[in-house]
Amino acid sequence: MSNKRRQFIKLAGLTTMGVAGVGIKAFALKNDDNNNLNNHMPKTISELSNNEYLDEKTSVIGLYGAWANSLNANKVPSFSFRRKEFTNVAQWQKAARQRAIDRLGIPDVGGLPKVSVNKQYTYDGLHIEELTWQLPYGRPTEAILLKPVNAKGKLPGILAFHDHGGNKFFGRLKITRTSDNQLPSMKGHQDVYYSGFAWANEMAKRGYVVLVSDAFTFASRRVKYEDVPEFMRKGKNDNDENNPENIQAYNDWAGEHEHLMAKSLFCAGTTWPGVFFAEDRKALDILCARPDVDATRVGCGGLSGGGIRTVFMAGLDPRIKCAVDVGFMSTWTDFLLHKSYTHTWMTYVPLLPNELDFPEILGLRVPLPTLVLNDNEDQLYTLPEMKRAEQILTEVYKKAGAENNFRCSYYPGPHKFDVKMQSEAFDWFDQWLKA
After folding, report:
1. Fewer Cβ atoms within 10 A, N terminus or C terminus of the chain?
2. Angle between the 89-104 and 272-289 helix axes, to the nearest 10 degrees?
3. Three-state SS at 143
4. Which of 418, 19, 374 is nearest to 197 (CA)?
């Protein structure tokens, strides 16, 4: 890792989700005298290894790890297509998707919202629209739409998902660029994770209509101090939000708030991935309803936190004809024994591991084309479990007679979606959405 990259991560306090999503939570942990776990953990991504804790004697939950893992170890989950009793793809898919939907507790977020075009202009050969729409709850969702200037007819569409990166103050700006006056923090973010590119722009330049919306709890959809009780604000307010110190303070606060959000969503009978899916599906509805989009040729993709959103969106909505999951593919075992501490609450769906292993959520889309891009030194997963996830998806696609529709590639380096990975991803979209 270069000094420039290492220094940026230390200063920004990023661990990536999403990173998710392109992973998931920034991993610059604070020293806390009341938290012995944090005191002994690595302080930056550069100190992590994707083989951390990979042995038979230890786990992130101590002696309970082996017992907890044994509950599903060496078992093929009950709704896995790998089970012998499932022979018809369509019948299995219907049943397995419904089970996943039931576990997610996807909330009803209403019909197609009215979309407002707040501003439109051209930049770097692209026609850009700044959009908003209002869901039945929270502040309006803000989004950026990009397509080639002077594009004619219906184009294929891409739902582009931004990462988590331990930075919930920002969302859509992480993977877009709309002027030469880019925020320094967003330029630094793109330098570290995207080889300096705004990948949504680069995708649009290839002849796509690309929509990037803020995810639930990010940017325009974030939880503000003014909306929580005084005792939770810790003296903070929403004034002077563009001050870098205040942005970092908000991201620290938002990271600490995630367990409260997850618990509250569970109490409401839903899950964080379920809310992600509901809001992302609404964005997909908006994209597909546009007169300049060919709704039969739509794909989605993203890094880390964007990767996890890709897993659920592509797995559950057959309108996604092509998917690229970057930097978010492993197994429930990996999270359970080794890497749950590198991920936020946005990853987990209670009880679903009994029925589908994590890669099998994405596998619900078989035989539709799917590309998974991994980094060999990704700090959010262990390499053996990334390989096992690949094997599971390979088995699913092979059983469905669609081996050529699945590909998994590995690149050197830590958690990222660099220019070489982008090239493979863009070519994959072209292969399946422009044919």
Report:
1. C
2. 120
3. strand
4. 418
3-state SS, one letter per residue, for 67-110: HHHHCCCCCCCCCCCCCCCCCCHHHHHHHHHHHHHHHHCCCCCC
Are 138 and 261 within 8 A, CB to CB? no
**Which residue's structure tokens are 């220019």?**
419
175 neighbors 160 (Cβ within 8 angstroms): yes
Cβ neighbours of 152 (radius 10 Å): 7
Give the separation between CA 134 and CA 139, rounded to whole angstroms.
7
Token pair 């003296």 in the structure block, residue: 235
CA–CA gap between residue 243 and residue 220 (Å, rounded):
17
- Along the 435 residues of the chain, how does pLDDT read in single tens digits? 444 444 444 334 333 333 333 333 333 323 333 333 333 333 333 345 666 555 667 899 999 999 999 999 889 999 999 999 999 999 999 999 999 999 999 999 999 999 999 999 999 999 999 999 999 999 999 999 999 999 999 999 999 999 999 999 999 999 999 999 999 999 999 999 999 999 999 999 999 999 999 999 999 999 999 999 999 988 888 887 778 999 999 999 999 999 999 999 999 999 999 999 999 999 999 999 999 999 999 999 999 999 999 999 999 999 999 999 999 999 999 999 999 999 889 999 999 999 999 999 999 999 999 999 999 999 999 999 999 999 999 999 999 999 999 999 999 999 999 999 999 999 999 999 997
**Residue 373 CB coordination number (10 Å):** 27
DSSP state of 57: S
CB atoms under 10 Å from CB of 22, counted, come to 33
The strand pair at 370-375 and 293-303 is best described as unpaired
d(CA 340, CA 228): 27
Q: Kindly list the distances between the CA atom of residue 307 and the CA atoms of 105, 257, 258, 328, 401, in Å, as whole numbers in the listed order.
A: 20, 22, 19, 5, 25
| Selection from 343, 415, 345 nearest residue 24 by Cα | 343
Question: Burial, 2: exposed, middle or buried (Cβ in 10 Å; 0-12, 13-18, 19+)?
Answer: exposed
Q: Model-level pTM?
A: 0.89
